Each structure stands twice: as structure tokens, then as C-alpha cells.
# Entry
Amino acid sequence: MSRDDIVTPSTPPRMADVAKLAGVSKMTVSRVLAGRDVSARTRQRVEDAIDSLGYLPDASAGTLSSGRSEFIVALVPSLISSNFADTVRGLNDAVRAQGLCLLLGDTNYQVEEEALLVRTLLRHRPVGVMLTGSVHLPNTCKLLQQAGVPVVETWDIPSEPIDQSVGFSNIDAAAAMVGHLQARGYRRIAFIGGASALDNRGLQRRRGYLQAIAALDLGEPRLLEHGDSPITMSHGGEAIRRLLERWPDTDAVLCVSDLSAFGAIMECHRQGLKVPDDLAVAGFGDFEVSRYCTPTISTVAVDPYRIGLRAGEMLLASAWALREGLPRPRETARLDYQILAREST
Amino acid sequence: MSRDDIVTPSTPPRMADVAKLAGVSKMTVSRVLAGRDVSARTRQRVEDAIDSLGYLPDASAGTLSSGRSEFIVALVPSLISSNFADTVRGLNDAVRAQGLCLLLGDTNYQVEEEALLVRTLLRHRPVGVMLTGSVHLPNTCKLLQQAGVPVVETWDIPSEPIDQSVGFSNIDAAAAMVGHLQARGYRRIAFIGGASALDNRGLQRRRGYLQAIAALDLGEPRLLEHGDSPITMSHGGEAIRRLLERWPDTDAVLCVSDLSAFGAIMECHRQGLKVPDDLAVAGFGDFEVSRYCTPTISTVAVDPYRIGLRAGEMLLASAWALREGLPRPRETARLDYQILAREST
DNA sequence: TTGAAAGCGCTACCAT
DNA sequence: ATGGTAGCGCTTTCAA
# Structure
């Protein structure tokens, strides 16, 4: 054709244009796109017309008409945490085979922002919503329940789940790591965490530390709270300095995150402290850095990708049940964690 | 009321329900939601009705009717790279004030996957599309151009941009780092990169290395290609072993990414090699780990967040011009990079 | 296997 | 400042 180079036609092609070109009705085009029963000859003609026009069906029209959207919502406290990024990746992998699109929101560790995002994103009538954590504003829960949309809370074990959940006990995991330190012979064990009340996972880990210290009769807790979430590498260095000022005879420290643990270890190097001989350092989360730094960092391993994958599967199952009018599953998946004993303890 | 606890009404409230309850027409409700001129009394009545019904406007109906969506698309090669996560964060921060939602796609470093995602996501008629890199399938570009949607390519300087772009020259940046190494007195400088042809940024950095080696008359290049993108910490350790087998007298190495550089340095530690005395190691990207590890890693600093922020602003400006029927800006923003000389070189 | 008509929930446009 | 009507582009439903 001589018009191949016209790139922005005044108006993009509609289904009616395809239908006219193929010499069929709109319905037949719609059926071809949906993969329904259409004779081979007709289908071919329609597909040719679609290709030659460069037709892309309009999603909002389809959604409005059918009542079914193609969105899945994922809300994370922070995009830069590789942990949550992995969870989003898992969710994405679980649902993209169904042709669903990922609507992503970053709450910046704030429940108010979460509520705002839920309100905004619910307007798109998503097939499912993945939340991070178990702490939400009452309004958030109400909106979600009212919408009747499948929800999965992740990274935690909610005592009163909105719908479904997949996570692990941050309390138990942190306590288990304290147990590991105690078994290694450490007795003056400290905890380095964030000062923010907004990071419930961090708070739970702190609680696990406190419970274990009490249960194992390890004396007064040594609790250092410093900095905001997301916890980064700089956190550990600053925190360890303050910790050692206050409790110089500490022999082991559990950090709320591997990133913090790494920062702490690097600061120990600078101060001439040997890890683990002078001070043992444990992390949480099994970040990549812990496997490759020297010394390698003992940590609590969880599987962020699997959390997302599982959440995606639960959401798909719920959405399917909802469509078929079947009773909805209401699962609370408790995932394993593992204590990885490495060189730093 | 006595029905407050009914959480999932058979059908969610529509605008007509709100209108009826407030005793006004649908149009007035629509105006209240759009923030248009409505008398204070009427507005109050409508807002009360909205609250008491828990009404959430349906986005697809709005989009279909107005022809304007509220989506912005972001396509990244990998979600787990903190670099791209930062860019997405910047984009998000730039556009969320306008109430836009982020539709995220992970291409997994594959142009075919990118083409597929573009096709899928374009069906939602996004306000703008952010792409990563300058290498795309012809079909991807055609679809994008045909849709007439504002596009920004990031992290690179495309020779033939689809629309707009914001990035930096990976070639120049890598060459500049080689220059830095040469200035420090190193003469047998190697490059560690990925073996994947899909990561164009990595390829450009390699090209910059080769150009600089030739320009500075530093002899035969020492090019080690290993592993797939995304490049992770494990990459560096493996690559440095192979590098030193092949060219044992290497005195400096530029790594395609800080993560690789970190892995390389940790492997040097294990082998008893002192960095930088026995071997200097430089990275690329200014990842957090480079600032906190020992030795701190010399690197090329770019600003991923700013790339995203700028991309968002460009997209908003284009979308605005498009709506107003004004000529669209067509900017190609070239961002700075910085050579950060730290302890590892 | 295919087509015609109705309508999804909202906004643009023109009235008043 | 407010309301009525038409219609966005598709899918559902029913009929042929």
C-alpha cells in the first residue's frame, strides 16, 4: 500500500472497522478475540483484518461490558527493598499467564497511603489485591470487604485476616535466631531494629527477640532502635556504634535485616572488631549480600518470591470460585523459615 | 441504621444510586467527583450520599466515556535490580500526584516479552509509556507509534528515539572510568561483563571500555564475558577467577555492575589478594553496597530515581500537550554521570 | 455458526 | 448551577 508510513491515524481502529473489513459482524470479531467457536475461514479473515488495521481491543470497553477486569493489585511498603520486589515478581509470574496486568502501589510504609491507594485502585475493579503485612486502617479493610474482592495479606500471619494470607511468623523466626545465638554460647545478645512504628514486621521481630531473651533467661534485653524503614545498610553502622556505647560488653547482635547486619559488620571492621570473635552479628531475610560478603552472614531465610507466587495462586483460585459462584477458599498459608548458620556467628 | 454490618451488598452502588439518595441528577454527582462548579449545599449532600453508600466510581466506565485513562505504563528488564526499582519509584512519585496508576511490566531482559507487554498494556490506553533501554522489536515501536501514546525511553541515549528519552551514555561513562583507572597508574585493565546480548546497557559499557583501551593505547583488551543478566553478586566472584586464570597479570578490572564488583572483591579477599594493591576493582551504578563495604568501591554514579522522575515529567508534559492539542515536546535528556573514586582503586 | 439489539456506568454536550 | 440525552466500544443475550 502507499499509505504504510502514516503512523498516527486520526482515530485508532475499532472493532466495527475490523468487522467491516472482514465482512462480518462485530460479534464475530469479538468471538475470534475471545477464542470462541468460529469457522476456520471466518477466523482467518478476521485475523487478517485485525493485523492489517493494527487493531487493539479497548480494555475499558471490554471491562465495562463484561464486568470482568484484567488487573491484579499489589501494594508494597517500598519498591526498593529487594525482598518485596521478589514478592511482586512471584505474584506477577503467577498471574501473567492468565493475561492479568499488574497495578502496583508503593505505600511508603504508611497505612494512610495504603488506604488512599486501595481506594484509588479499587476503582479499577481488580480481580484480586495483594497487601503487605497485617496492619491496615479500618477503612482499608472496610473498602476491601465491601468491594468483595479477593485479598491476600502477605509477609505476616494476621490474627484477623481480611480474607486470605500467606506469610510466616516474624516473632517465631526472630526468637529462633536468638535461640541459635544462645546455642552458640552467646549470652549478652542485643537487637538492632528500626525506630518506626509503621514497620510491623520489624516490630514483630523485636517482639520475638524480647520473648526469647525472657524465655532463655538471658538477662535484661539490649534493644537499640534507630532509623526509619526501609532499613538500609547505613542503618547497621550507625546503630552498632550507639549499641556499643551503651552496652560495650555485648557479644552478639541480631539485626532486623541483613542490610543492617552488613552495615554493622563493615563498621566492626573499621573499628578493628573481629566478627564473630569479638562480636557475633546475625541478620534477617537472606539477602544476596549475606552470602557473598566476608564473613558470610548468619540469617533467617524466607522465600519472598514464593510468598508472591502463592499469593497469586490464592488470588486466582478465589477469583475463579467467585466467577463460578462456588464457595471461596479461605486459606491461611504459614510458610517456613530457616536459620542459616554462617560465618558471622 | 440497622444494616451497617452488611458488608457485601449484592451489587455495589452506582452513580445513579448516589444521585437518587442525594436528590440530584447523575451529572451533579459526576461534577462533584470531578471538582467542578457545584453549590456548596449540593456538594455536601452528594458527598454525604457517597460516604454513606461507600460509593467508588467505576474507572472503566469513566475511561470509556471520557476517552482518558489514568494509567501510566512502566516496563523494566528486571524488578529485582534496585536500579530499575529506583527508576520506577521516581516515575511513580512524578505521576501519582496527578492520580495516575502504575501499570508495571517485567520484560525479563527479553525484547519479545517487551513486545507482548506493550501489546497487552496498550489495550488500556495509557497516558504514557516508560521503556527501559533503546533496543526494541520493530513491532514494539510500530505499535507504540500507531497508538500515538507518549513514550520515554530510559537509561540510554537512543540514536533513533521512538519519542522522547532520558538517560546517559553508557559508552562514555565506562570509558571515563577506564580513564580514571589509567590516571591512577593502572595499565593492564580488564573488563568483566555479562555474556547476554540482551542487556544493551551492559554491551554499551563494554564498548566504552574497548574504545578507551584503544584510545589510551593500553594494549590488547582483556574482556571477560560471563553469565546472564541481571548481573548479581555471584557473577563477580566467578568471573574474577576466570579472568585471573586467563590474564594473571591484570592490575585493574572494571565490572559491568557494582554487584559484580562486590562479588569480585569478596573473592579477592578469599584468595588473599589485596584490593586495590594487588588488584584494583571498579564498579558501575553506585549501588548501596559500594558505599558500605570494605574497601569502598569506586564506581560510576548515575541517578536512577532521577531518570524515573524526569521520565514521569516528560510523560505528563506530553500528555498535557496532547490533550490541549498543542505541539508535543520531543526532548532527549542527557543526564550526568560521575566517577566516584573510592578505596578500591 | 452467525447476527441484531440492548446495555454496562460513566462523561460530553447542549439545554434550561 | 443543574438536568436530560446521547454515546463511548465492547460483550451479553437472544434469535435466526
